[in-house]
From TrEMBL:
GO terms for molecular function: NADP binding; shikimate 3-dehydrogenase (NADP+) activity. Keywords: Amino-acid biosynthesis, Aromatic amino acid biosynthesis, NADP, Oxidoreductase. Residues 235-255 form the SDH C-terminal domain. NADP(+) binds at residues 127-131, 212, 235. Involved in the biosynthesis of the chorismate, which leads to the biosynthesis of aromatic amino acids. Catalyzes the reversible NADPH linked reduction of 3-dehydroshikimate (DHSA) to yield shikimate (SA). Gene3D superfamilies: Leucine Dehydrogenase, chain A, domain 1 (3.40.50.10860), NAD(P)-binding Rossmann-like Domain (3.40.50.720). Residues 12-92 form the Shikimate dehydrogenase substrate binding N-terminal domain. The active site is at 69 (proton acceptor). The keyword Oxidoreductase applies. This is Shikimate dehydrogenase (NADP(+)). Shikimate binds at residues 20-22, 65, 90, 105, 214, 242.
């Protein structure tokens, strides 16, 4: 029996691209939904060449990874208002030659935090990059109270100006004043698995702790938080949900269900361990 040739070729673009699990995730979604498609990784240091490839080869869906989530924006024809608000695009949909930019990281964060009431909660946010902005957007929309700590204090003040909240220094933090801890930095990501992304003194049993990092599945932050009795949320929830939402944008169909999410999480965990 001859192998089935994919009728649709999609893309994930970045530089480097070898670390991306998006082709694996998309492949599992295609399989479960019986879609005849494949997502191929393409690396290039020139974002313009990558966007030209999308246009000339009529690529329907492109997942955008670092470092192009911001630099790709001026090259697109239309930017969704949510992506515009955080100045980052992680999804490009080609609609009859017109390129539309979206950000499904926000959808992924909303899914990961779906059972966490954020209204009037004090949320310590680590990270001021694309993921940090997406987290701040979600927390702000749900009326949470943001507390920012970052290596670059200017970035913290910029985020506080945009999403409200207050900027703090590490030595000013009091565990009793924090309800939720969210790491939106790469600290703790493989191979840097021994690094703790949040100040040790604020991690206790009264916290909800969410780490956007999904490799490893249980970061040092989540290990410490779990040992101390906190509620922990792995980045795998966000990663899988944002990928499903990318396919939804491409197909125009609502496909996310609890059953699908659990199937995909199981598959990704099996493939990455």
């Amino acid at each position: 029996m001859k192998p089935k040739i994919p009728s649709k070729i999609n893309m994930v673009m970045g530089n480097p691209i070898s670390q991306s699990k998006s082709p694996l995730l998309h492949g599992q979604i295609y399989k479960l939904l019986k879609l005849n498609a494949v997502t191929v990784p393409v690396a290039d240091s020139d974002v313009g060449k990558l966007v030209s490839k999308i246009r000339t080869e009529s690529i329907g869906l492109t997942a955008v990874t670092m470092p192009f989530k911001k630099s790709v924006i001026p090259l697109l024809d239309h930017i969704d208002k949510t992506a515009k608000s955080i100045n980052a695009v992680n999804t490009i949909i080609n609609k009859n030659g017109k390129l539309f930019g979206y950000n499904t990281d926000i959808d992924g964060i909303q899914y990961a935090l779906r059972e966490v009431p954020l209204k009037n909660k004090n949320v310590l946010l680590l990270g001021a990059g694309g993921a940090g902005h997406a987290v701040a957007h979600v927390v702000s929309e749900q009326k949470g109270k943001l507390i920012y700590i970052n290596r670059t204090i200017e970035e913290s003040f910029n985020m506080a100006k945009k999403f409200k909240g207050r900027v703090a220094k590490e030595d000013e933090l009091d565990a009793g004043d924090i309800d939720v801890i969210i790491n939106a930095t790469p600290v703790g990501m493989f191979p840097d698995v021994s690094s703790l992304s949040a100040p040790d003194k604020v991690i206790d049993k009264n916290k909800v702790v969410f780490d956007v990092v999904y490799s490893p599945l249980e970061t040092k932050l989540l290990q410490v938080a779990k040992q101390r009795g906190a509620i922990v949320i792995s980045g795998i929830d966000m990663f899988v949900a944002q990928g499903v939402c990318q396919i939804e944008r491409w197909t125009g169909k609502k496909i996310i269900t609890p059953k699908l999410m659990e199937q995909l999480k199981k598959k990704i965990i099996e493939e990455t361990l």
